[in-house]
Amino acid sequence: MNWRWISLAALLGALVIGYGALVERSPTPTSNNTQAEQPGYYLQDAVITQTQKDGSLGLRLIADHIEQRGNDNITLKTVRVNFFQSSTEQSAPREWLLSARQGLVPANFRVVQLFGDVVLRPADAQPTAFLRADALAIDTQTNIAYSTSSPVHVRFGGHSMVVKSFRADLTNEKVRLESVNGRFDPQQQQ
Amino acid sequence: MAASIRNNNNKRTGTLGALLLVATCATAGAATLVRQGDEFNWDAKVVTSDFRTDTLEISGDVRVTQGPMSIQAGAAKAKDVRSQNAQWTFENAVHIVTSEAELQSDTASAAVVRGQLARARAQGSPAQFAQRGSKTDAQVRGRAGVIEYDIAAGIVKLTDNVWFSNGKDEFRGDVVIYNVRDERVQINPGGEGRVRGVIRPQKGTAATAPAPTTPPPPQPESGA
User: Fold this and answer.
1) B108 CB near a chain A CB, below 8 Å?
2) Residue in B41, B42, B82 closest to A126 by CB
3) Facing B41 at nearest CB: one of A130, A174, A182
4) Which domains are present in chain A?
5) Cβ of B56 and A156 within 8 Å?
6) Which H/E stretch holds residue B22?
7) pTM score
8) pLDDT tens for each residue of A139-172
9) Structural domains in chain B plus CATH codes
10) Hey, which bits of chain B come out as E strands?
């Protein structure tokens, strides 16, 4: 008889513990407002390549540090970018070189913003032809680079220019500079 | 037919003319020229380039300056801008000014040699030249289809339907070469074509003019 009561008590205890364990394990609904921001990924000495529709290389991005933020923006430090463009009926294949101290890629990847000693130049052009700005943005859909700060310093051969704004069409390589003050300054060539 | 004269009709016409010569020469002697090391500056509203063809297309109130020299135009194109010897072309109301001369034309080109504005070539219908610093009544002026200006040497060459005046006398010919510094004029120096001139004696000076002590310079034949 005693054993009977002991077994019954053990069974009840097991049920209680089991129920408790089951209740503990079930998900507790939590509010997003109280959830801590998810940390994004980060990359050191990263090389990212992106291909074009035809499979050819479209972009190679090299950065000392890449970090994804909670809002899905990506920040870049010490950036070097090679833009590759396939040939079209109007143009030969082209490559542009871009470098900057910092960059910001938004979640939709549409407009890349670069800051700090930004230099843009065609890869196969004379090294003395380049565009240098404190800040620059590139619309990756239209392939247009444009100034986001003023003034902009441009070096073209022996001429150094200070311009109010610029717009560079990376597809046809046309650069438009506005309100230009130029100076022939061959000593300062890079 | 060729003629060579100096803009010193004062020697023929008396004391007043001599004063004019001195004044003109003093101005020419004080001319400020572009010097080595003078900054070559330019500005404009818009510049387009493709970073590849070594060319700048410039538009909107284009102004180029170096030392005392300036060139203004509505638009310009600069070629070979990577080198020290660039070639600039200007269009739309071109105005070239140095300390010695002034040119106005429809189009013009300018050569930059070792970073310095060295030569200009103005074309127009007609292009116009005027010497700066001279008195109004001794204003040396010229008009021609083409005017070439060697800025460093101070020599102006007018070709194509040339009209040239020293403020009093007028000449027409195919080619006129004028040195803005010693004020010597050569008309049709190659000896081809006719020189047509109008030489106007100064009023009231013939009776009082002293006899020249040196032979007068050769006078152009008037074909008029």
Assistant:
1) no
2) B82
3) A182
4) 42-188 (2.60.450.10)
5) yes
6) helix B15-29
7) 0.72
8) 988 889 999 988 888 877 778 899 999 999 888 8
9) 3-32+51-198 (2.60.450.10)
10) 3-6, 40-49, 55-66, 69-79, 87-97, 101-113, 116-131, 141-150, 155-165, 170-179, 184-187, 196-198
